[in-house]
Amino acid sequence: MDELKIYTYIAVFGTFTLYFAIAWWARAASTSDFYVAGGGITPMQNGMAIGADWMSAASFISMAGLIAFLGYGGSVFLMGWTGGYVLLAMLLAPYMRKHGKFTVPEFIFDRFYSKTARIVAVVCLIIASLTYIIGQMKGVGVAFSRFLEVDYGLGLAIGMGVVWFYAVLGGMKGITYTQIAQYVVMIFAYTIPAVFISLQLTGNPIPQLGLGSTLADGSGVYLLDKLDMVVTELGFKEYTTSNMNGSLDMFAYTMSLMIGTAGLPHVIMRFFTVPSAKAARASAGYALVFISFLYTVAPAVGAMARLNLMSTIEPTAGQNLDYEQRPQWFKDWEKTGLLQFEDKNGDGKIKYSADKATNEMVKVDRDIMVLANPAIANLPNWVIALVAAGGLAAALSTAAGLLLAISSSISHDLMKGVLTPDLSEKNELLAGRVVMTIAILISGYLGLNPPGFAAGTVALAFGLAASSIFPALMMGIFSKKMSGTAAIAGMCSGIGVTMLYVFQHKGIMFIPGTDFLGDMGANWFFGISPNAFGVVGALVNFAVAFVVLQFTGPAPKHVQDLVENMRSPGGVATVSDH
Q: Rounded distance, CA 322 to CA 501, Å?
C-alpha cells in the first residue's frame, strides 16, 4: 500500500471514528433532542455547527472549482451565499427563534393558521432539500472514488452509511456536536493546502494576500495577470473580467442565491437549538466569523488551482505536454472518469483550449479542482489526505442537516401536525428515524445519477427555496395582515413558475451530464438562466400573495397580535386558540 493511501485511510477513517463516537455520546432521547438538540446549544457551538452546515460540498468542493473556471463570474456564489446568510441572521432567524417552534412548516402553520399552508410548506421544503442533497451526495462519491480508489457507487454507499449512523441515532443533538468536529476538520483541510500553494506561487503564506501578490519567480508579474495571460492564450475568457451570461443574469443569480439561502430550512433549524432570540443573534455573529475563514480563501484557491492546472498541461507557451509523460495526479483522476483526454489529432500531446473542435481535454469536472489541487502542486501526501477528509466532512455535515429537515417536516409537521395528531413522543421519534432512513436511501439513489456538478445542482435548490419558502417567511414576520389563503397562493405560484421555467429548458440539471449553464441563453426570459430564476419566482410569490390578500381579507386579530408580539423586544410570541 502506497504512502498516500495510508495517510488517506488514517485521515478519513480516523475522522469517521470521531463522528461515530460523538453521535453515540450525544444520541437523542427525546423529540426535543432529535429536532432542536434540547434548545441548549451555546451560541459559539451553534456558530461553529452552522459553519459546518453552511460549508457543504458545494462550498468546499465545488465553489473554488467554479471560481477556477468562471473567474470573476464565479463571485456570484461568494456574494450570494454570504449575503444570504446576513439576510437570514438579521431578518428571519431571531424572530423565528423567539416564536419557539421546531420547524419552518410549524411556524408557517401557526402564522398562517392553516394546515394546508403547513402541507404546502412541507412539499416546498422537500423539493428544495432533495435537490440540494444531490450535490452533497455527488461530493461524497467524488471524494471516495478518488482517494479510497473505490467505485463511485460504493463510495456513495459508504457515505450514506456514515450519515445514517450519526444522523439517525443522534438527531439534531448528535448532528450539532458532530458538525463542530467536522468544522475543525474542514477548515484545516481547506486552509493548510492554500497556505502551502500561496507560499509556493507567491512567497506569501496568507492566501488572501497571495491572490493579489506578484509571483515568486522574480518576474514581477502579478498572479492574476499571469493567469489572464495563460487562459487568453488558450482562447478562454479573461479570468478577471468574465461575467457569465451578462450583468442581469449575474445580478439575478446573486439575488436568487441570497434569498434562497435565507429560506433554507436546514439552516433556519439551527437557530432553534439555542436558548433564546438573543443567543440566536450571537450565534449568527459567530457563524459569520467561522464561515469567513473559508469563504475569503476560496477565491485564492480557485485562481491558484486554475493556474497550476494550465501550467501543468502546457508548461511553456505553445508547447503541449506529452500524454505519456502526464503526471501521476492526472492518471489518478482519469481512473475516476472525472478527467478525460481524447487524442483527436493523433500527435500524442495534450491540447487544452477553448475551441471544442480541437480541445482534447474532453472532460475536466470542476468538482475535482479543490481535491486535486494539492497533488497538482506536489504537496506532501498528508496534506492531500487531509483534503480528502475535509471534502467528506463538508458533504456529510450538510447532508445530515438536510436529512433532518426532511425527516422533521414529515414526522413532526405532516404526521404529528396533520395526519396523526395523537402520535406519542416515542412513536414520533421512531417515525422521524424511519423517515430519515428512507430519505437517505432516496438521496443516495439520486446521487448515483447526479444532475450536473455539485454547485450547479445546489444553485437550483437555492432558487426553489427562494421562490417558495423565503417570501412566506418574510410576509409572515413583516406583514401582520397577510392571510393564510394569500400565502398559500404565493408559495404555489412561486415554486410553480420556477419549476416550469427550469423544466422548460433543455439545459436543466435533471439531465445527467448537462452543463449547469444550460443552453447559454436560448429562449431565456430576459437572459436569466434557469438557476437564477428563483428571484423571479420570489417576485411572483410576493405579487400573487398581495393580490389575493385584497380579495380574502386580512389575517384574524389574534394572528396579527402574534406577529406584533413576535416583533416586539419584550413580547412573547404565543398562538391563541382558534
A: 45
Cell readout for 427 is 412513536
Domain 3-306+379-567, CATH among 4.10.520.10, 1.10.3720.10, 1.20.1730.10, 3.40.50.2000: 1.20.1730.10
110 in Cβ contact with 127 (< 8 Å): no
Burial class for 459, CB neighbours closer than 10 Å (0-12, 13-18, 19+): buried
Considering the chain, tell me which residue range(s) the CATH 1.20.1730.10 domain(s) occupy: 3-306+379-567
With cell 463510495, the residue in question is 155
**CB neighbours (10 Å) of residue 221?**
13
Q: What is the Cα 458 distance to its own chain's centre?
A: 6
CA dist 268 and 172 (Å) reads 13
Residue 509 has pLDDT above 50, yes or no: no
Q: What angle do CA 493, 124, 88 make, to 5 degrees?
A: 100
Report the pLDDT averaged over residues 2-8.
Answer: 79
84 residue type, one letter: G
CB 505 within 8 A of CB 523: yes
Whether residue 140 contacts residue 57, with contact meaning beta carbons closer than 8 Å, is answered with: yes
Residue 516 has a pLDDT of 41
